[in-house]
Amino acid sequence: MSDKEKKVLASPKARKFARELGVNISEISGSENRGRIIENDIKKFISSKVNKNSSIESPKIKKEFDHIDFGEVEIVDIPRVKKIASSYLMNSWTNIPHVTNHDEADITELENFRNSLTDMYSGEKKKITPLAFIIKALTASLKKFPNFNSSIDDIESGKLTIKKYFHIGIAVDTPHGLMVPKIRNANNKNIDHISKEIRNLSEKCKNLKIDKKELFGGSMTISSLGGIGGSFFTPIINYPEVAILGVGKAEKKIISINGKSQTRIILPLSLSYDHRIIDGAEAARFNNDLKTNLGKNFAYKLAV
Length: 304
Ligand code: CAO
Hints:
This protein is α+β, with helices and mostly antiparallel strands. The protein is 36% helix and 18% strand. A hairpin with a 2-residue loop joins β10 and β11.
């Protein structure tokens, strides 16, 4: 903490909130007694910055009409989780120079292997989704590319924090909004274990039973829309992480291999990264490595 930050009046909770959002607390004026800063002041500070930035981009639009002028409307409450997430999303969207590299992984062998998995006792087919394998593959790539497992707390300091742990965030769609719990130490867990954790964590999120701490402290996030549909998209980085992997729906495609047409199962990947830390070439190499980890020689190895 700098001397300037120490003089600022704010609770540890408000300081932590500012740190999580990458905001320098000494730039904020507090609304409480003796200028004490509370979480709401931090939210206001971010939204004033966002509005300032957007007014540079586009002129203010005068509101000529209201929605009601064109027909019946209904005003509903925005869910609490969405309101909380909005500060994080706006912070990320406005402060991180995002670039997204799109790529495709051939997961034919992985899918054959996944579909062949049966329970040792009942003989029934195991219900393991591709996501468990993708978490393992991503963890292996993070080991090789530590920049992707890093955070910048303050760019002015010129320091990058490289994490030695592998906590993979998974974006979970819930009726309350999006939540991102972590699969902790994914490097030490097998596919079965990860698969069970995906189910447990998403149930906890859907029932609002997730502990707040489980939503923080990640290495990198996976946003998988594979169970719903679509191919490529541009995921927003989950600050303070520096990269996020978007996963689309795997589809059968006919492709030419050594001049022969073959039907293969292709998984769309969309990797967004913080261009201050990761260059396009490094991102392309990362995707190559990830594709290898999801490819034929590695799928079996990853499962053990
Ligand atoms: N390609 C093809 N099929 C896929 C797939 C993929 N990439 N990923 C999952 N599937 C299949 C699964 O195998 C499963 O098939 P069966 O019903 O035949 O068993 C089906 O799709 C449903 O999977 P799922 O979505 O329930 O499970 P998951 O482990 O893939 O994902 C979770 C779990 C929690 C990530 C998911 O439920 C979810 O919430 N996804 C949405 C995430 C999201 O909203 N991201 C956007 C964030 S930005 O706004």
